């Protein structure tokens, strides 16, 4: 069972890289697009990172559900964690929509908006970590 935890943690770390880096990458992509008029290396990197991290996110969700079910029998704190993870997943899907728009040359927001959007995920991740460590109920 420990190997499932290891896989879960590794995939969570990879997914978090995408969650934190892709919105920041959109800022650099927007600047690059304004300069070049087309997608350059920043856009390519951001797209590839989003896609790679999404796969890791799926594995993290599956292994997390398995751990919650088998290891902790869906204890109350795991349900709260799952709810928070679903918020993070929804944020990541929204990020994917922003990446899709950027692929089409549409950047509908300014740099400040992308920065704030990026920090929202940090706050939710902090809440997840608190739930996992403290196990409030």
From TrEMBL:
GO terms for biological process: protoporphyrinogen IX biosynthetic process. The chain crosses the membrane at residues 6-29, 49-72, 78-100, 112-133. It comes from the Bacteria. Belongs to the HemJ family. Keywords: Cell membrane, Heme, Iron, Membrane, Metal-binding, Oxidoreductase, Transmembrane, Transmembrane helix. Its EC number is 1.3.99.-. It is found in: Cell membrane. This is Protoporphyrinogen IX oxidase. It is a multi-pass membrane protein. It catalyses: protoporphyrinogen IX + 3 A = protoporphyrin IX + 3 AH2. Its cofactor is heme b. GO terms for cellular component: plasma membrane. Pfam families: UPF0093 (PF03653). GO terms for molecular function: metal ion binding; protoporphyrinogen oxidase activity. Catalyzes the oxidation of protoporphyrinogen IX to protoporphyrin IX. The keyword Ribosomal protein does not apply. It is an enzyme of class 1 (oxidoreductase). It comes from Histidinibacterium lentulum. Pathway: Porphyrin-containing compound metabolism; protoporphyrin-IX biosynthesis; protoporphyrin-IX from protoporphyrinogen-IX: step 1/1. Binds 1 heme b (iron(II)-protoporphyrin IX) group per subunit.
């Amino acid at each position: 069972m420990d190997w499932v935890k290891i896989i879960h943690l590794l995939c969570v770390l990879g997914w978090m890289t995408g969650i934190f880096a892709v919105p920041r990458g959109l800022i650099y992509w927007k600047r690059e697009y304004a300069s070049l008029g087309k997608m350059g290396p920043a856009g390519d990197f951001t797209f590839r990172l989003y896609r790679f991290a999404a796969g890791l996110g799926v594995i993290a969700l599956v292994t997390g559900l398995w751990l919650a079910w088998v290891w902790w029998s869906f204890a109350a704190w795991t349900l709260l964690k799952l709810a928070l993870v679903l918020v993070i997943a929804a944020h990541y899907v929204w990020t994917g929509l922003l990446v899709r728009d950027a692929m089409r040359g549409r950047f509908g927001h300014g740099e400040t908006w992308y920065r704030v959007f990026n920090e929202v995920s940090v706050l939710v991740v902090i809440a997840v970590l608190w739930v996992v460590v403290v196990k409030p109920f």
